[in-house]
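Technical note accompanying the year-one report. For the benefit of new consortium partners, we illustrate the data format agreed upon in the data management plan: each record pairs a sequence with a structure-token string. No post-processing was applied to the example shown here.
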Amino acid sequence: MKILITGGAGFIGSHLVNALSKDNEVIVVDNLSTSTTKYIQPLIDGGKIKFIKHDLSIYKDDLFEGVD
């Protein structure tokens, strides 16, 4: 599955990212206003997930294309 997780750089979201990235393609969208990528950085560096820094209050239709 292709999964998009919003807020995935935070403490709780990063646990979700870690669990789901084992068997799925994961895209993380976070504006980093209250978090950092420290919890998911190894997955970013290893190419296991795609990270997009973006504020979802600014709607981008193409972020949601093709996700399950």
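Partners are asked to follow this layout when depositing records. The beta strands are 2-6, 25-30, 49-53.
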